[in-house]
Amino acid sequence: MKTTDPEFESTLRAAAEKWVGTSFRRLHCEMNVGVDCANITYAVLSDSGLQLPEMRAPTFGKTVDQSFDNIISEFLADFVKSEAFTILDDLDNPDIRPGDILLFRVTKAMQHLTAAVSATEQLSVWPSRPAAIIAIDAKWRRRLIGHYRYA
Question: Which pTM value belongs to this model?
Fold first, then answer.
């Protein structure tokens, strides 16, 4: 499937809705048990029919002693290197589409990864909040530091 297929957005939303309510758990990917932001992004995009590179989920070959920011950075670099995703240079006025991967700077020391479910919504899971489909509002847009699109 491609992100431009007419049924992609509804397929993506259905895949995302299955994860809603799942708690955060670092380097884990089990629906209704626990998942982190990189794993939920990978799982939902894969479940939506996108052909993604094998990433050795749920740990992506990493260990819990590595910083999560480094894991996210290497995860995105592997996606770009595999040519599955391209980097977009539109951070000031992003053209967000279903299936895009969004990278946010949440604090000086923490990044957050989400999958766009629509032009205005994203699937997010956070240590203090279970997975939910939330708005990509002005607060989130100000924090955007990376935008990736399925190639």
Answer: 0.92
**Which residues lie below 8 Å from residue 144, measured CB to CB, with a gap of 6+?**
91, 94, 102, 103, 104
Domains belonging to the chain, first-starting first, are: 8-150 (3.90.1720.10)
pLDDT reported for residue 60 = 66
Q: Which of these, 128, 134, 129, 130, lies nearest to 115 by C-alpha position?
A: 134
CA-to-CA dists, residue 35 to 27, 29, 30, 57, 82, angstroms? 7, 4, 6, 11, 24
Cβ atoms of 74 and 80 within 8 Å: the answer is: no
For 23, the token pair is 């708690």
Q: Are 115 and 131 in contact (CB under 8 A)?
A: no
- Listed in order, strand segments (DSSP E) in 24-100 are 29-30, 34-35, 85-87
Q: Which position has the higher pLDDT, 46 or 56?
A: 46
